[in-house]
Amino acid sequence: MHTLKQQWFGNIRADILAGIVAGFALIPEALAFAFILGVDPRVALYASFVIAVVISFVGGRTGLISGATGAMALVLVSLMANHGLQYVLAATILTGFIQLILGVFGVSNLMRFIPNSVILGFLNALGIMIFMTQMPYLLGASGMTYIFAIVTLILLYTIPRFFTAIPATVIAIVVMTGIALISGVKLQTVGDMGTMPNTLPVFFLPDIPLNFETLKIILPYALALSIVGLLESLLTSQVLDEMTDTPSDKNREARGQGIANFITGFFGGMAGCALIGQSIINVKSGGRGRLSTLTAGVFLMILILLLGDIVIKIPMPVLAGVMIMISFTTFNWGSFKFLKQAPKSESLVMVATVVIILYTHNLAIGVVVGVILSALLFVAKVSRVTVTQDKGEYKVKGPLFFASTTKFIKSFDHVSENMISINFENSQLWDESAVGAVLKVKQQLEKKGVTVHINGLNSSSEQLYKQLT
Questions:
Q1: φ and ψ of 454, to 5 deg
Q2: In DSSP terms, which residues pair with 400 in a beta bridge?
Q3: Which of 71, 107, 359, 414 is the most exposed place for a label (fewest CB within 10 A)?
Q4: CATH fold of 383-468
Q5: How do residues 104-148 score in pLDDT, each as one tens digit?
Q6: What is the reported pTM?
Q7: Bridge partner residues of 66 (DSSP)
Q8: CA torsion angle for 64, 365, 384, 465 (degrees, to 10)?
Q9: Across the strands, what pairs with 454?
């Protein structure tokens, strides 16, 4: 009870102020992500509101802000284009259910198996994909469209150097929208993309047939959304842990993200996850408790309901500029240094992850393939076993397991002594394949009349050897 009270009311003033700032910062990105997905702005705004409110109660990392995100929008683009909004909402509900199950079974424990090279590839591919999604709205557009996008980028780059009290995205959007309204220049606006919400979201069931065909359509997207959403959320949670020097419950965060997505699908919102930019803004503004996350979600909806008529006048080139800046900050520019300094295998994994994601347009596939490739390269690296001969004693060096048994067996093809010993002081038997390889060598040599002694096994290797012989 004390912990719960501390999480909610231990930092009231700072949490409310930080939540207001984070709420401001949610608007431009929610609109921009709706822009990516090609849906009515309400879909992203309702998602950010519902997810932020729900995660404030059930999340495992206090101060973390969740909502509609570019990563999730990118996964949903083809589903929206081919099947429409109702299937997007159904996929969101299924995503929440899958994430909840993964959280129950301790999915956060699997994070340690994702190498840094894969994470870098994921972030870089995400940055590139966000950038690429803006190109159709800029290429071939009018000269003023380019001017507004470029000036927005300049403001987003320069403002934080001199002023940080209010997010640069909010200032840039207000300034550029004001210029557009005063000058009367004709540009595509948010209002052209759809209507703004004028009521709170209401509960409804997605209008889709409940059959196996529907499941076949939405399940691949839901699985991809689950992996991408949890990856981004758990990474964001880890960043906040380090920033605040406080721990968090990663499995509870996974369950919380699932509950939030499950609920938001019934209220007309798209799937979402943690927003690293808004979360950092919240924490740097003093937000530490659950109240800051709740305030961000509630304040977002208050702003939309009261100022919706102004929000619809925001020029789309300005939002494109915001998304391009997000793509720049998402891309890890230190990756070029990483490619020069890191082992070739890790560089290969990072590049492969990026290429696969860009080719498939699926962030989850890239991560899974990247992890598998990294594991294969690691196995290849550690499977280097050597056998040296010294007066009838064959010394084995290196781990003996399924990937190194072939070389181990071949090392005894030309034994000429009548009696030998195989020394495992500098080796380890890891699996049944290793024991099988030792027995095979022993049997083949004994058929040739060679006496074989096995020695130097450590306790775990000896236990495995006796268990399987």
A1: -105, 125
A2: 429
A3: 414
A4: Transcription Regulator spoIIAA (3.30.750)
A5: 998 888 777 788 888 888 888 888 887 887 787 788 778 899 999
A6: 0.75
A7: 274
A8: 80
A9: 422
